[in-house]
Amino acid sequence: PPDSPWIRVRANALQRRGEQRFFDAKIAESIADFDAFISLYPEQDPHHWQRGLSYYYAEEYEKGKAQFERHQTVNTQDVENAVWHFLCAVRAPGGKVESARKDLIPIERDSRVPMKEVHDLFAGRGSVDAVLTAAREDNDGVLSETERNHLCYAHLYLGLYFEALGETEKSAEHIRLAAFDYAMDHYMGKTAQVHAKLRGITDK
């Protein structure tokens, strides 16, 4: 039965190993673990944004797009979900920036810095400067941990934005900042590092 302690332990181990494999840039292996986790707990499928990220890096863009559409049903106000859906939509067969922009999932209530500005940028009504200005809380020259985190997110999503636009050098510039200069040890901070590894972006 799915509520047996053994199944729970096994599922948790698969989920953790899938995440670790993703961080090690072993993308196919991470998907295999996430699939195995979801086969034990099928009701977790719509919650599984981590598998969506793995799909993007595995170039399984249609599967990624579908995963983020399902995630939207359980997490309705998350700019990051809208953005990853956009990224997969652009790269899926027949995908274009214009149509992905038209289908960008509307998000009204993600109060995290700098998510409103990131959403505006992907929607085609924002700017790179607006994202960076929002991420820099003050100009006293001292980088707080909070500000560092905001800049990590800002540069990760700017890097992904320019990747969607096919502007490889600009993308690498921002990913480098997210992965190294403003490195953070959480899932999205590590995603920036995985991106750098997979795209051959090194620290200066």
Q: What does this 3D model show about the protein?
A:
It is a single chain. The protein is mainly alpha-helical and 204 residues long. It has helices at 5-23, 27-40, 49-57, 61-72, 79-91, 97-102, 115-123, 128-135, 145-164, 168-181, 187-199. It is globular and about 55 Å long. Helices cover 67% and strands 0% of the residues. The N and C termini lie far apart (52 Å). Helix 3 (49-57) runs parallel beside helix 5 (79-91).
Topology:
Layout: H1 5-23, H2 27-40, H3 49-57, H4 61-72, H5 79-91, H6 97-102, H7 115-123, H8 128-135, H9 145-164, H10 168-181, H11 187-199
Task: Give keywords.
204 residues; mainly alpha; globular
Instruction: Report the sheet with the most strands, covering strand number, pairing sense and barrel closure.
Output: none
Tell me the overall shape.
globular
- SSE-based structural type: mainly alpha
Order of helices and strands: HHHHHHHHHHH
Total count of strands: 0
| Percent helix | 55-70%
**Poorly predicted regions:** none
Compute the separation of the termini in Å.
52 Å
Q: Briefly, what is this?
A:
The chain has 204 residues and is mainly alpha-helical. It has eleven helices and no strands. It is globular and about 55 Å long.
